[in-house]
Amino acid sequence: MHILIGGYTKHESDGIYQFDFIGAGNEAHLEQRRNVVKVGGPTYFQKDGDFIFTIKNEDGHGGIATYENGRLVSQLLHEGSSPAYVGINKDKHLLYTANYHTGVLAVISYDEKGQLTLLDQVKHESRALGPRPEQVDSAHPHYFDQTPGGHLVSCDLGQDRVDFYDFDGQHLTHLASYQNEDGFGTRHLVFDPSGSYFYVAGELSSQVNVVKFDEENWMFQNVATCSTIPASWDQHNGAAAIRLSKDGKFLYVSNRGHDSIAVFEVQDDHSLKLIQRISTYGEFPRDFNWDEDEKYVVAANQNSNNATLYQRASDGTLALLVKDIAVPEGTRVLFTD
C-alpha cells in the first residue's frame, strides 16, 4: 500500500510525493518519501491504474493534466487559475473539475491512453453572493462530483449553494439547488450509503449541515446543523475535507485553524453527535483520507509541511500513530495499492 500527497508548489514542493505504508497496528508507519510526479500546484488529483489526473499550473496557465509513471501524457490548460477539485468516474472515464476562481464547472473525458477531451462546461453566475469577505467578489464552486443517482453535484462557497446537474454525455443541464444559510461557505459534501441524506461542510461557518434528499423529485429537508469547532474557539477556522465511513456511521471533518479533525457519530435520525476532536499535530489540515478498509487515516498539514498517521477504531475514534511526517505544502491525500 502507498500514500500519495500533493499540494501547492510555492515553496519547497516539487509536486506529488509517494510514501510506502509499512507495518500494521501500532507499528504502522510511512517510509521512503519520493517525488513521483513533478508538476506545479497539484492541490487535488485522482488516480486510475497508472494514470494520475491532477490539477496543474504552469506559466500563468491552469488546468488538468494526465501523468503516467511520472511522464506527462496529456493536458488541458487555459490562461488563469487552475481548478480546485477533480472528481472521477472510472467506469465512464470521466473527470469533473470545479474552478474556485473562474466559477467554471467542467466535464472531461479520458481514453485508454490518458488523453483528455473537454466535453462541456458551465459557469456559475454571481447571482446571490454571501455576506462574508471571501464571498462578495464572485461565485466560488469548490466541488463537482457524482450523486448516488448518477447526476452531478457542485458546492458553491461564494453563494452558499449546492447545485445539481444532468449530463447526457455531451451537455450539462441544471436540475435543482439547495440553499445553505448566508455565510455558510458551502465547500464539500458526502452522501450517506442510502443516497437519501447528504452532509455539507461549511468552510466559513465551521459547520456541517445534514440534509434529507429525494433525488427523484428534487426535494430537500434541512435536518440539523452542528459546529466542527468548540464554542469557545474565537480565532480563525475553516472547515475543509469531509469524509463519511462506508457504513454511514461516522463522519469526519478537518478544521484549518483549530488544526483538528472533528469526529461525529451519525444518529438514527442522521443528526450528528460529536465524539472526538483530535489534533492534526500541524497547521492547516486541508485534506485527510483513509485506506480501503478505513483502518488508517493520514492528514496533511499544509502550512507546517507535515503529515500525521492515525489508527481508526471500531467506535470511529482516531488514535495517533506517527506525527511529523515530512511532506511539503500538502493539500491532497490518496491511498493507493
Morphology call: globular
Low-confidence stretches: none
* Residue share in β-strands: over 45%
Radius of gyration: 19 Å
Multimer state? single chain
InterPro entries: Cycloisomerase_2, Lactonase_7-beta_prop, N2O_reductase_N, WD40/YVTN_repeat-like_dom_sf
Protein name: 3-carboxymuconate cyclase
Family: Belongs to the cycloisomerase 2 family.
Organism: Lactobacillus equicursoris DSM 19284 = JCM 14600 = CIP 110162
Which structural traits does this protein have?
58% strand; four-stranded antiparallel β-sheet; 28 strands; 337 residues
Describe this protein's structure.
The strands form 7 sheets. The protein has a 4-stranded antiparallel β-sheet with strand order 3-2-1-28, with no helix packed on it. Helices cover about 0% and strands about 60% of the residues. It contains no helices and 28 strands. The mean pLDDT is about 95. Strand 20 and strand 21 (about 250-255) form a beta hairpin.
Question: Concise description?
Answer:
InterPro entries: Cycloisomerase_2, Lactonase_7-beta_prop, N2O_reductase_N, WD40/YVTN_repeat-like_dom_sf. This is 3-carboxymuconate cyclase. The chain has 337 residues and is an all-beta fold.
Q: Could you give the topology of this structure?
A:
Blueprint: E1 2-7, E2 15-22, E3 29-38, E4 45-48, E5 51-58, E6 61-68, E7 71-79, E8 85-89, E9 94-98, E10 104-110, E11 116-123, E12 141-146, E13 152-156, E14 161-167, E15 172-179, E16 186-191, E17 197-202, E18 207-214, E19 219-227, E20 238-244, E21 250-256, E22 260-266, E23 272-279, E24 285-290, E25 296-301, E26 306-312, E27 318-326, E28 330-336
Antiparallel strand pairs: 1-2, 1-28, 2-3, 4-5, 5-6, 6-7, 8-9, 9-10, 10-11, 12-13, 13-14, 14-15, 16-17, 17-18, 18-19, 20-21, 21-22, 22-23, 24-25, 25-26, 26-27
